[in-house]
Amino acid sequence: MVTKRPFGQTxxxxxxxxxxxxxxxxxxxxxxxxxxxxNEALDAGLNVIDTAECYGGSEELxxxxxxxxxxxxxxxxxxxxxxxxxxxxxxxxxxxxxIDRSLKxxxxxxxxxxQLHSCxxxxxxxxxxxxxxxxxxxxxxxxxxxxxxxGEDALYAVQCGVFDALQTSISVADQQAMxxxxxxxxxxxxxxxxxxxxxxxxxLKPERPVGDYAEPYWLRLQELDYAFxxxxxxxxxxxxxxxxxSVPGVSVAIVGTTxxxxxxxxxxxxxxxxxxxxxxxxxxxxxxxxxxxxxxxxT
Length: 299
Description:
Elements: E1 5-6, E2 13-14, E3 17-20, H1 22-26, H2 31-44, E4 48-50, H3 58-66, E5 74-79, H4 92-106, E6 111-117, H5 121-126, H6 128-138, E7 142-148, H7 151-159, E8 165-169, H8 176-180, H9 182-187, E9 191-195, H10 215-224, H11 233-246, E10 252-255, H12 262-268, H13 277-290
Parallel strand pairs: 3-4, 3-10, 4-5, 5-6, 6-7, 7-8, 8-9, 9-10
Antiparallel strand pairs: 1-2
Helix pairs in contact: 2-3, 3-4, 4-6
């Protein structure tokens, strides 16, 4: 049994492995397959589902599959990209309409966390996008608000003090946030969601995945040359996932899958608990030795 973790200063206690809804949307997975995968995961203990406005049909698939079990899980979504709307990204009127559309797609009156989806520091400084999600919270459409993103944009989001949660990239191949944003997020007692926590398991690809959004991770891992990634693939994934969940301040790591039963299998990887201090320090030391100044968080 995996121990639940507090999610910042919220009232949520989260299972440390969440379900990411990007793959089911982008790959247009059949609704019956999604229903089987999600319901099996809920039966196995899943209690965090994370999706977004621009993940294809993800919100609708999730709503159709598990809206009838809404009390059993925390539901996170994101807003900001004008997927399906004529207005530009981050337009306040579009954002308000988009939030209502997400609730309709997800078949719920309220999500647990509504996140601004990787907008720039300049957009955040302007303030109108933040005001839209604050109004949504005040209207009971979300319980908490957060920011999803990386780098200096994420640092501003954390420092501005209005958000309850940060979703950011953290993995053996993406450690900028561990020094840039997580210390501040911990001070502010924010809930932290780790995205791409196993770096897309890109080390399993024998050749450079040119053009793939995980290509930078593949290149970094060639230089990092971690010994634990060269052995048994299951143990490699286990070490990578346990590393991310050993990072101080991380509440939950989001992993997507399209295969029924896979979430339960991934959860079993966490049974040994956090990495030992020696294992964790070795991975951090290798990163500090090898990482270049351009190895920034991948949004």
